[in-house]
Amino acid sequence: MAGLSSSGAGVERPFVSVVIPVFNEAENLRPLFDRLTKVLDELGTSWEIVFTDDGSKDGSVALLLELQRLRPSQIHVIEFSRNFGQHMAVLAALRQSRGEVVITIDADMQDPPEEIPKLVDAIRKGHDVAGGYRVDRQDTRFRRTASRIVNALRSRATSLNMRDQGCMLRAYRREIVDLILQSNESITFVPALAALYASNPVDVAVQHAPRVGGRSKYNLYRLVRLNFDLVTGFSAAPLQIFSLVGLIVSALSGALVLLLAIRRLVVGPEVEGVFTLIGILFFFQGICITGIGIMGEYVARIYQEVRRRPPYVIKKIHEPRPE
Ligand code: UDP
Ligand code: MG
After folding, report:
1. Is ligand 1 within 6 A of the CB of residue 218?
2. Do 24 and 61 touch, CB atoms closer than 8 A?
3. Is the C-beta atom of 110 inside 6 A of ligand 1?
C-alpha cells in the first residue's frame, strides 16, 4: 500500500489514529485507556488517540487530561463547549486525527479494543473501510430486535452496504476520512457516510461485551431520532413510497366512487356502513399525517442544513506535546 508509513511514535504522522467520543464515561476511561494502549503498543506501529469530550458533567475531561499526562505525545483531547451528540464528537476527532488508518470505537468497551488489530489487518490488505459487526451482541433483547428491524429497513431504504449500522468499531483509510470530512453535514451518521464513499469495504466479525460502567446514552426517543436522521440523510425512499401509496389509494378510491355512483343509481340511497366509513377515513387520515410528518423530516433537515450554523463548538483542544 503506497504511502503507508509506520515509523516511530510522536510528532510525525502516526500510522493508526483511534477516535473516541466521550460523554459521561468517567468510570470507563481508565480501563479503556489501559486496554487500548496495550493493544496499540502490541501493533508495533505508531499511533495516537483522539478523545472528544462531548460536554460531560462527570469529570471525564479531568480524567482525560490525566491520561494525556501518561502518554503526552500520543493523546489528543478535544473539549466541546456542551453536548453535541456522538457523531459530532466523532467528526471533530476525525478532523483532528492524522493517521493513515483511523479507527472509531466507543468509550464504554462494549466493542472490545482487542479487536482493533483485525480491522487494521483488513485495511492493510487493501480494504478502504472495515466495518465491525457484533456477534453475540450483549444488549437488551429490545435493543437487539430493534436493531435487526432498523438494519433491515435501512438496507432496503438506502443502498448503503453496512452489515451492522450500530457498531461503531470500524476502520477507515485516510482517503475515506477526508471524504467524510468534506461532506460538511450538520446532522450525520459517520458509518453511513463511509459506506457511501467506500470502494472496497469489508465486514469483520467482532466480539461484543455488556456495558460495564455508566449507562447507555440512548433512550428510545434518541434511537428513533438517530434512525430517522440516518434514513432521511441517505435516501429519499420514504417520500417516494408515500407518492406510490398516494397513487394506489387514489386509484382504489376512484374505483370505489364509481362503484358507489352506480349503486346510487341502481339501488338508491344507502346509509349502512357509516362506522366502517369512519374507520376507513381515520385510517387514511393516519396515512396522510404520517406522510406530512415524513415531509416535515426532510424540510427540517433542509432547514438545518441551509442555516449553516457551526454543528459543534470546541472549547479547547489539548494537543499532544513531544515527550
Ligand atoms: N456519546 C457521545 N455523545 C452523546 C452520546 C454518546 O459522545 O451524546 C458517546 C458515548 O460516550 C459512547 C458512544 O458515544 O462512547 C456510544 O454511546 P452509548 O454506549 O451510550 O451507546 P449504545 O452503545 O448504548 O448504543
Ligand atoms: Mg455502548
Report:
1. yes
2. no
3. yes
Nearest-CA residue for ligand 1 atom 17 is 217
pTM above 0.90, yes or no: no
Sort 262 into a burial class: Cβ within 10 Å, 0-12 / 13-18 / 19+. Answer: exposed
* First-last CA distance in the chain: 30
Question: Given the C-alpha cell 450538520, which residue does it identify?
Answer: 186
Span 173-189, pLDDT tens digits = 999 999 999 998 888 99
Q: At 236, phi and psi to the nearest 5? A: -105, 10
The region, left, alpha or beta by phi > 0 then psi within -120 to 50, assigned to residue 15 is alpha
268-322 pLDDT per residue, tens: 888 777 888 888 889 999 999 999 999 999 999 999 999 989 999 999 999 998 8
Per the prediction, the chain carries an average pLDDT of 92
Q: For a ligand 1 pocket test, name from 103, 108, 206 the mutation site with the most ligand atoms within 8 angstroms of its C-beta.
A: 108
How big is the CA angle at 112 (ends 56 and 40), to the nearest 5 degrees? 90
Q: If you search the block for the grid coordinates 475531561, which residue do you land on? A: 61
Q: What phi and psi, each to the nearest 5 degrees, are found at residue 302?
A: -60, -45
Using CB atoms within 10 Å of the CB of residue 89, give its burial: 0 to 12 exposed, 13 to 18 middle, 19+ buried. Answer: buried
Q: Which helix (H) or strand (E) holds 133?
A: strand 129-134
